[in-house]
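Troubleshooting log. The previous structure file for this entry was overwritten by mistake, so regenerating from the original sequence record. Sequence copied from the archived sheet and checked twice against the printout by T.R.
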Amino acid sequence: MAMWIGINRKARVCYGFDDISLVPGKITLNPEEVDIRIQIGNYTLNIPVFAAAMDGVVDPKFAILFGKMGGVGVLNLLGIYTRYKDPYSVIEEIISSPPEKSTQIIQNIYKEPVKEELIEERIAEIKKGGVICAVSSIPQCAERFLEISQNSGVDIFVIQSTVTTARHISAKYKPLDLYSFCKNSRVPILVGNCVTFDVAYELMETGVSGILVGIGPGAACTTREVLGIGVPQVTATADCAYARDFYFKKTGRYIPIITDGGMVTSGDICKAFACGADAVMIGSGLVKAVEAPGKGYHWGMATSDENLPRGTRIKVGTTGTLKEILFGPAKVDDGSQNLIGALKLSMASLGAKNIKEMQLVEIAIAPSVKTEGKIYQSVKKLQKEK
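Regenerated output below.
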Protein backbone atom coordinates (compact mmCIF):
# COMPACT_ATOMS: atom_id res chain seq x y z
CA MET A 1 0.00 0.00 0.00
CA ALA A 2 1.26 3.46 -0.88
CA MET A 3 0.15 6.97 0.04
CA TRP A 4 0.67 10.31 -1.64
CA ILE A 5 3.29 12.42 0.14
CA GLY A 6 3.31 15.18 -2.48
CA ILE A 7 2.45 15.89 -6.10
CA ASN A 8 3.24 12.80 -8.18
CA ARG A 9 5.21 11.24 -5.30
CA LYS A 10 4.12 8.18 -3.36
CA ALA A 11 5.60 6.41 -0.34
CA ARG A 12 4.99 2.89 0.91
CA VAL A 13 3.33 2.35 4.26
CA CYS A 14 5.67 0.10 6.28
CA TYR A 15 5.38 -1.43 9.72
CA GLY A 16 7.63 -2.11 12.70
CA PHE A 17 7.18 -4.41 15.67
CA ASP A 18 5.22 -1.86 17.71
CA ASP A 19 2.63 -1.60 14.92
CA ILE A 20 1.40 -5.21 14.95
CA SER A 21 0.03 -7.92 17.20
CA LEU A 22 -0.37 -11.69 16.75
CA VAL A 23 -3.86 -13.18 16.66
CA PRO A 24 -4.54 -16.51 18.47
CA GLY A 25 -5.84 -19.33 16.28
CA LYS A 26 -8.35 -22.16 16.83
CA ILE A 27 -6.11 -24.44 18.90
CA THR A 28 -3.52 -24.11 21.64
CA LEU A 29 -0.60 -26.42 22.38
CA ASN A 30 1.64 -27.59 25.17
CA PRO A 31 4.68 -25.24 24.99
CA GLU A 32 7.01 -28.14 25.83
CA GLU A 33 5.97 -29.86 22.59
CA VAL A 34 6.71 -26.92 20.29
CA ASP A 35 9.64 -27.50 17.88
CA ILE A 36 11.83 -24.42 17.32
CA ARG A 37 14.75 -26.14 15.58
CA ILE A 38 15.93 -24.81 12.21
CA GLN A 39 18.36 -25.89 9.52
CA ILE A 40 21.21 -23.70 8.22
CA GLY A 41 23.16 -25.51 5.52
CA ASN A 42 23.95 -28.92 7.00
CA TYR A 43 23.67 -27.67 10.57
CA THR A 44 20.69 -27.93 12.91
CA LEU A 45 20.21 -25.16 15.48
CA ASN A 46 18.27 -26.17 18.57
CA ILE A 47 17.36 -22.54 19.16
CA PRO A 48 16.85 -20.27 16.11
CA VAL A 49 19.07 -17.48 17.39
CA PHE A 50 22.36 -15.99 16.21
CA ALA A 51 24.41 -13.79 18.53
CA ALA A 52 25.41 -10.69 16.57
CA ALA A 53 28.98 -10.33 15.30
CA MET A 54 29.74 -7.39 17.58
CA ASP A 55 32.72 -7.15 19.89
CA GLY A 56 30.68 -6.35 22.98
CA VAL A 57 28.55 -9.45 22.38
CA VAL A 58 30.65 -12.30 20.98
CA ASP A 59 34.16 -13.33 21.92
CA PRO A 60 35.36 -16.95 21.63
CA LYS A 61 34.25 -17.79 25.18
CA PHE A 62 30.76 -16.39 24.61
CA ALA A 63 30.53 -18.18 21.23
CA ILE A 64 31.28 -21.49 22.95
CA LEU A 65 28.78 -20.93 25.76
CA PHE A 66 26.08 -19.74 23.37
CA GLY A 67 26.75 -22.67 21.03
CA LYS A 68 26.38 -25.17 23.86
CA MET A 69 22.97 -23.64 24.59
CA GLY A 70 21.84 -24.35 21.03
CA GLY A 71 22.46 -21.15 19.08
CA VAL A 72 25.35 -19.75 17.04
CA GLY A 73 27.59 -16.89 18.12
CA VAL A 74 29.17 -15.04 15.19
CA LEU A 75 32.70 -13.70 15.69
CA ASN A 76 33.58 -10.45 13.90
CA LEU A 77 36.82 -11.05 11.97
CA LEU A 78 37.42 -7.31 11.79
CA GLY A 79 36.94 -6.85 15.50
CA ILE A 80 39.35 -6.43 18.38
CA TYR A 81 39.77 -10.20 18.85
CA THR A 82 41.66 -10.46 15.57
CA ARG A 83 43.52 -7.17 15.98
CA TYR A 84 44.84 -7.54 19.53
CA LYS A 85 46.46 -10.45 21.36
CA ASP A 86 44.93 -9.09 24.58
CA PRO A 87 41.50 -7.77 23.54
CA TYR A 88 40.12 -7.43 27.05
CA SER A 89 42.35 -4.52 28.03
CA VAL A 90 41.09 -2.83 24.86
CA ILE A 91 37.48 -3.45 25.92
CA GLU A 92 38.23 -1.80 29.26
CA GLU A 93 39.48 1.26 27.38
CA ILE A 94 36.31 1.39 25.27
CA ILE A 95 33.83 1.04 28.13
CA SER A 96 35.67 3.40 30.46
CA SER A 97 36.02 6.24 27.95
CA PRO A 98 33.84 9.35 28.48
CA PRO A 99 30.78 9.53 26.18
CA GLU A 100 32.04 12.57 24.28
CA LYS A 101 35.29 10.77 23.38
CA SER A 102 34.08 7.18 22.92
CA THR A 103 33.61 7.33 19.14
CA GLN A 104 37.08 8.81 18.57
CA ILE A 105 38.69 6.26 20.90
CA ILE A 106 36.92 3.38 19.13
CA GLN A 107 38.03 4.74 15.74
CA ASN A 108 41.67 4.77 16.90
CA ILE A 109 41.43 1.29 18.40
CA TYR A 110 40.09 -0.21 15.17
CA LYS A 111 42.94 1.25 13.11
CA GLU A 112 45.15 -1.61 14.33
CA PRO A 113 45.55 -4.11 11.46
CA VAL A 114 43.84 -7.51 11.54
CA LYS A 115 46.35 -10.32 12.07
CA GLU A 116 45.86 -13.59 10.21
CA GLU A 117 47.39 -15.65 13.01
CA LEU A 118 44.78 -14.29 15.41
CA ILE A 119 41.98 -15.33 13.04
CA GLU A 120 43.39 -18.85 13.14
CA GLU A 121 43.75 -18.78 16.94
CA ARG A 122 40.21 -17.52 17.61
CA ILE A 123 38.61 -20.07 15.27
CA ALA A 124 40.68 -22.86 16.81
CA GLU A 125 39.55 -21.76 20.26
CA ILE A 126 35.87 -21.90 19.30
CA LYS A 127 36.28 -25.23 17.51
CA LYS A 128 38.00 -26.66 20.56
CA GLY A 129 34.82 -25.82 22.48
CA GLY A 130 32.93 -28.32 20.32
CA VAL A 131 30.33 -25.92 18.87
CA ILE A 132 29.42 -24.53 15.45
CA CYS A 133 31.95 -21.85 14.56
CA ALA A 134 30.64 -18.87 12.58
CA VAL A 135 32.61 -15.78 11.61
CA SER A 136 31.76 -12.50 9.87
CA SER A 137 33.59 -10.32 7.36
CA ILE A 138 32.91 -7.30 5.18
CA PRO A 139 32.81 -7.98 1.40
CA GLN A 140 36.21 -6.34 0.76
CA CYS A 141 37.99 -8.88 2.99
CA ALA A 142 35.75 -11.88 2.36
CA GLU A 143 37.91 -13.80 -0.13
CA ARG A 144 41.09 -13.55 1.95
CA PHE A 145 39.35 -14.29 5.24
CA LEU A 146 37.34 -17.21 3.83
CA GLU A 147 40.50 -19.03 2.80
CA ILE A 148 42.07 -18.55 6.24
CA SER A 149 38.81 -19.47 8.00
CA GLN A 150 38.20 -22.63 5.98
CA ASN A 151 41.75 -23.81 6.59
CA SER A 152 41.17 -23.19 10.30
CA GLY A 153 37.98 -25.27 10.35
CA VAL A 154 35.21 -22.67 10.34
CA ASP A 155 31.65 -23.98 9.86
CA ILE A 156 29.66 -20.93 8.68
CA PHE A 157 30.93 -17.75 6.98
CA VAL A 158 28.91 -14.53 7.11
CA ILE A 159 29.37 -11.54 4.80
CA GLN A 160 27.90 -8.34 6.24
CA SER A 161 27.76 -4.72 5.15
CA THR A 162 25.37 -1.86 5.80
CA VAL A 163 23.56 -2.51 2.51
CA THR A 164 24.32 -5.67 0.54
CA THR A 165 23.29 -6.36 -3.05
CA ALA A 166 24.22 -9.01 -5.62
CA ARG A 167 25.33 -6.24 -8.01
CA HIS A 168 27.89 -3.88 -6.52
CA ILE A 169 29.48 -1.42 -8.97
CA SER A 170 32.85 0.28 -8.55
CA ALA A 171 35.44 1.72 -10.94
CA LYS A 172 38.15 1.87 -8.26
CA TYR A 173 38.19 -1.74 -7.03
CA LYS A 174 36.97 -5.17 -8.03
CA PRO A 175 33.67 -5.97 -6.28
CA LEU A 176 33.17 -9.35 -4.65
CA ASP A 177 31.65 -11.86 -7.09
CA LEU A 178 29.12 -13.60 -4.85
CA TYR A 179 28.30 -16.21 -7.49
CA SER A 180 31.84 -17.57 -7.72
CA PHE A 181 32.44 -16.95 -4.01
CA CYS A 182 29.53 -19.18 -2.97
CA LYS A 183 30.33 -21.76 -5.64
CA ASN A 184 33.93 -22.13 -4.45
CA SER A 185 33.15 -22.07 -0.73
CA ARG A 186 33.24 -25.32 1.23
CA VAL A 187 31.01 -23.90 3.97
CA PRO A 188 27.56 -22.25 4.02
CA ILE A 189 27.62 -18.52 3.21
CA LEU A 190 25.19 -16.13 4.89
CA VAL A 191 24.92 -12.58 3.52
CA GLY A 192 23.34 -9.31 4.57
CA ASN A 193 21.94 -6.98 5.13
CA CYS A 194 18.97 -6.29 2.89
CA VAL A 195 15.32 -5.26 3.27
CA THR A 196 13.54 -5.74 -0.07
CA PHE A 197 12.08 -8.56 -2.17
CA ASP A 198 14.17 -7.89 -5.28
CA VAL A 199 17.52 -7.73 -3.51
CA ALA A 200 16.81 -10.77 -1.34
CA TYR A 201 15.80 -12.79 -4.40
CA GLU A 202 18.92 -11.80 -6.36
CA LEU A 203 21.12 -12.67 -3.40
CA MET A 204 19.50 -16.11 -3.22
CA GLU A 205 20.33 -16.66 -6.87
CA THR A 206 24.05 -16.30 -6.06
CA GLY A 207 24.00 -19.53 -4.05
CA VAL A 208 23.96 -18.20 -0.49
CA SER A 209 22.64 -20.32 2.37
CA GLY A 210 20.93 -17.55 4.33
CA ILE A 211 19.91 -13.88 4.19
CA LEU A 212 20.23 -11.31 6.99
CA VAL A 213 17.36 -8.81 7.04
CA GLY A 214 17.57 -5.36 8.58
CA ILE A 215 19.18 -2.00 7.83
CA GLY A 216 19.63 0.34 10.75
CA PRO A 217 17.30 -1.10 13.44
CA GLY A 218 20.03 -2.18 15.89
CA ALA A 219 20.25 -0.49 19.28
CA ALA A 220 23.82 0.69 18.65
CA CYS A 221 23.36 1.47 14.95
CA THR A 222 22.88 5.04 13.70
CA THR A 223 22.58 4.27 9.97
CA ARG A 224 19.02 5.55 9.83
CA GLU A 225 20.02 8.83 11.47
CA VAL A 226 23.24 9.29 9.47
CA LEU A 227 22.16 8.01 6.04
CA GLY A 228 18.37 8.16 6.24
CA ILE A 229 18.18 4.54 5.05
CA GLY A 230 16.04 1.73 6.42
CA VAL A 231 12.73 -0.13 6.31
CA PRO A 232 10.88 -1.12 9.51
CA GLN A 233 11.56 -4.75 10.36
CA VAL A 234 8.04 -6.15 10.07
CA THR A 235 7.72 -5.07 6.45
CA ALA A 236 11.36 -5.89 5.64
CA THR A 237 11.05 -9.40 7.05
CA ALA A 238 7.74 -10.10 5.29
CA ASP A 239 9.07 -8.87 1.92
CA CYS A 240 12.26 -10.93 2.13
CA ALA A 241 10.33 -13.97 3.36
CA TYR A 242 8.13 -13.74 0.29
CA ALA A 243 11.29 -13.72 -1.84
CA ARG A 244 12.39 -16.89 -0.01
CA ASP A 245 9.07 -18.61 -0.66
CA PHE A 246 8.95 -17.52 -4.30
CA TYR A 247 12.54 -18.70 -4.82
CA PHE A 248 11.71 -22.04 -3.19
CA LYS A 249 8.72 -22.59 -5.49
CA LYS A 250 10.88 -21.93 -8.54
CA THR A 251 14.00 -23.86 -7.53
CA GLY A 252 13.13 -26.21 -4.67
CA ARG A 253 15.94 -24.63 -2.64
CA TYR A 254 14.96 -23.11 0.71
CA ILE A 255 17.05 -20.14 1.87
CA PRO A 256 16.44 -19.19 5.53
CA ILE A 257 15.67 -15.58 6.44
CA ILE A 258 17.34 -14.17 9.56
CA THR A 259 15.82 -11.00 11.02
CA ASP A 260 18.74 -8.96 12.32
CA GLY A 261 18.15 -6.19 14.85
CA GLY A 262 15.29 -4.10 16.16
CA MET A 263 13.95 -6.67 18.64
CA VAL A 264 13.79 -5.20 22.13
CA THR A 265 11.57 -7.76 23.84
CA SER A 266 10.70 -11.44 23.54
CA GLY A 267 7.40 -10.30 22.01
CA ASP A 268 9.32 -8.62 19.18
CA ILE A 269 11.17 -11.89 18.55
CA CYS A 270 7.86 -13.75 18.34
CA LYS A 271 6.56 -11.17 15.86
CA ALA A 272 9.67 -11.55 13.70
CA PHE A 273 8.95 -15.26 13.25
CA ALA A 274 5.28 -14.56 12.54
CA CYS A 275 6.37 -12.15 9.78
CA GLY A 276 8.37 -14.91 8.11
CA ALA A 277 11.76 -15.17 9.84
CA ASP A 278 13.42 -18.58 10.16
CA ALA A 279 15.85 -17.25 12.77
CA VAL A 280 16.79 -14.00 14.48
CA MET A 281 20.10 -12.26 15.17
CA ILE A 282 20.31 -10.45 18.51
CA GLY A 283 22.91 -8.05 19.87
CA SER A 284 21.77 -5.70 22.65
CA GLY A 285 19.55 -8.37 24.23
CA LEU A 286 22.54 -10.68 24.73
CA VAL A 287 25.13 -8.09 25.74
CA LYS A 288 23.14 -7.83 28.99
CA ALA A 289 24.43 -11.28 29.93
CA VAL A 290 27.03 -11.54 32.70
CA GLU A 291 29.18 -13.60 30.32
CA ALA A 292 29.14 -11.04 27.47
CA PRO A 293 32.58 -9.43 26.99
CA GLY A 294 31.14 -5.90 26.75
CA LYS A 295 30.12 -5.89 30.43
CA GLY A 296 26.81 -4.28 29.62
CA TYR A 297 28.21 -1.95 26.94
CA HIS A 298 27.40 -2.28 23.26
CA TRP A 299 28.90 -0.49 20.26
CA GLY A 300 27.99 -0.60 16.60
CA MET A 301 30.04 -2.46 13.99
CA ALA A 302 30.23 0.71 11.88
CA THR A 303 31.29 2.96 14.77
CA SER A 304 34.91 2.68 13.75
CA ASP A 305 34.43 4.09 10.25
CA GLU A 306 37.04 6.81 9.97
CA ASN A 307 35.02 9.18 7.79
CA LEU A 308 31.37 8.60 8.66
CA PRO A 309 30.71 6.52 11.78
CA ARG A 310 27.25 4.92 11.78
CA GLY A 311 27.20 3.48 15.26
CA THR A 312 27.46 4.55 18.83
CA ARG A 313 28.44 3.11 22.19
CA ILE A 314 25.48 2.50 24.49
CA LYS A 315 25.09 1.10 27.97
CA VAL A 316 22.35 -1.48 28.37
CA GLY A 317 23.60 -2.85 31.67
CA THR A 318 24.11 -6.38 32.91
CA THR A 319 20.85 -7.99 34.03
CA GLY A 320 21.46 -11.73 34.36
CA THR A 321 23.25 -14.80 33.12
CA LEU A 322 23.00 -15.97 29.52
CA LYS A 323 20.99 -18.96 30.73
CA GLU A 324 18.47 -16.64 32.41
CA ILE A 325 18.21 -14.44 29.32
CA LEU A 326 17.62 -17.42 27.03
CA PHE A 327 15.82 -19.94 29.22
CA GLY A 328 14.91 -18.21 32.48
CA PRO A 329 13.73 -18.12 35.09
CA ALA A 330 13.10 -14.47 34.34
CA LYS A 331 13.91 -12.07 37.17
CA VAL A 332 12.47 -9.03 35.36
CA ASP A 333 9.07 -8.38 33.82
CA ASP A 334 10.07 -6.44 30.70
CA GLY A 335 10.39 -9.29 28.20
CA SER A 336 14.20 -9.28 28.19
CA GLN A 337 14.67 -12.68 29.84
CA ASN A 338 13.58 -16.25 29.08
CA LEU A 339 13.43 -15.39 25.39
CA ILE A 340 13.15 -19.02 24.30
CA GLY A 341 10.46 -19.81 26.86
CA ALA A 342 8.47 -16.81 25.62
CA LEU A 343 8.85 -17.90 21.99
CA LYS A 344 7.61 -21.42 22.79
CA LEU A 345 4.69 -20.12 24.84
CA SER A 346 3.72 -17.65 22.12
CA MET A 347 3.81 -20.37 19.47
CA ALA A 348 1.80 -22.70 21.68
CA SER A 349 -0.78 -20.00 22.38
CA LEU A 350 -1.08 -19.36 18.64
CA GLY A 351 -1.37 -23.07 17.80
CA ALA A 352 1.94 -23.20 15.89
CA LYS A 353 3.77 -26.52 16.29
CA ASN A 354 6.96 -25.35 14.57
CA ILE A 355 8.62 -22.32 12.97
CA LYS A 356 6.96 -22.99 9.59
CA GLU A 357 3.50 -22.82 11.19
CA MET A 358 4.50 -19.75 13.20
CA GLN A 359 5.20 -17.99 9.89
CA LEU A 360 1.53 -18.45 8.95
CA VAL A 361 -0.27 -17.10 12.03
CA GLU A 362 -2.68 -14.20 11.65
CA ILE A 363 -1.26 -10.71 12.20
CA ALA A 364 -3.23 -7.61 13.19
CA ILE A 365 -2.18 -4.02 12.55
CA ALA A 366 -2.49 -2.79 16.11
CA PRO A 367 -0.52 0.36 17.01
CA SER A 368 -2.38 0.57 20.34
CA VAL A 369 -1.38 -2.93 21.43
CA LYS A 370 1.33 -1.68 23.81
CA THR A 371 -0.70 1.13 25.35
CA GLU A 372 -4.24 -0.24 25.55
CA GLY A 373 -5.11 -0.63 29.23
CA LYS A 374 -1.48 -0.09 30.28
CA ILE A 375 -1.79 3.20 32.17
CA TYR A 376 -0.54 1.69 35.44
CA GLN A 377 2.47 0.14 33.73
CA SER A 378 3.26 3.52 32.15
CA VAL A 379 3.15 5.20 35.57
CA LYS A 380 5.37 2.46 37.02
CA LYS A 381 7.88 2.98 34.23
CA LEU A 382 7.97 6.75 34.83
CA GLN A 383 8.51 6.19 38.56
CA LYS A 384 11.44 3.87 37.83
CA GLU A 385 13.01 6.47 35.53
CA LYS A 386 12.82 9.09 38.27
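The first helix runs from residue 60 to 68. Archived copy saved in two places this time.
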